[in-house]
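Support request, please re-run this one:
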Amino acid sequence: MARRKALFVVPVLQRAGAENQLVVLVNGLPADQFEKHLLSYRPGDDLRDDVDTSEIGLHDLRRKGRLDFDLGRQIGRIIDEHDIDVVHCTLQNALLFGYMGVRYASRAPKLIASIHTTKNANFKLDVADWLVYRPILKRCDQVWFVSSKQAELWIRKMPFIAQTSVTVHNGVDLDYFDPALFPLARRELRVKLGISEEEKVLCSIAGLRTEKMHSVLIEALARNIGNGERYRLLLAGVGPMEQDLRKQVKQLGLEQQVDFLGSLKDVRGLLAAADCKMLVSAAETFSMAMLEAMAMQVPVITTAVGGASEAIDDGVTGYLLQPGDAGALAETISRLLSDDNKRIEMGKRARQVVAEKFSIGQMVARSAELLTT
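Re-run finished. Output below.
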């Protein structure tokens, strides 16, 4: 059987959730079944070294404006030169230019949209979905979503998507996210940050942005500390809310209980040292940070948004809460961290769930099946 020739389009090879998953997918697709090409068109290449260029053709173009028809023509030429059978576009902006390329090409490859958003950050993006991307989505052969809940939301918004929608859950590398690789992480982190053995470690790995609702987490921590419980909160991430959060920490007198760690390229050591992973966002799609923590046997307390309920079995592998409720969050933290045996068992079950449903192998196999249908 001839290899399927696939072109994957993404705006930028910058380290972020959707982009990371795309690189993992393209690397993982078997080279004996696929001729693989990866195209980006905006500056930023800190994921480039992760790309297996022995099997993947890289195409580094540049967009000259918001609606760059020349970029579409260049993509069309690549489609024709390499006899591309399928164009897979990650994120809506990539879909715009991937669609242009398909229209400019003399070939007629299959067009796939891979959507990684659930709620847009602002009204302007909502308008773009309706005026720009809705007509293109109607012309897609498939529309991929990373969770069933996300697909349901989009189908309610644009019912025609029901005919072409499929779910491809994110996948985690269980060999890479393996707690057995970090047997000394707990002790080393405690020594480095001056954390006592009596303190429980909560970690949050997320950009310091409004929708991540770190302020609610800090308020919940203050309630627990006020009740005499001994916790340390480690915040990994950067973003526009950092100064406001530092101010909140100071006002609540929590400078000794909250550490701002900045951006971490490798979060495994932090997860291996943590007793609990916190994800209290107002909006998520299907969090990779959640799956990575679960793979590292760390129970997750998260908000019941996006596809969280597809991975977290409430009270078994973690806890699901409503966004914004600091009181319920404080109570749940206390409940989880007061019982070490239950916490450890939850972590073990969480890794089992990832192995059964959310491994890289499963994501790649599902994707390969869809790319060839």
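Residues 340-357 form the longest helix (18 residues). The first strand starts at residue 4 and ends at 9.
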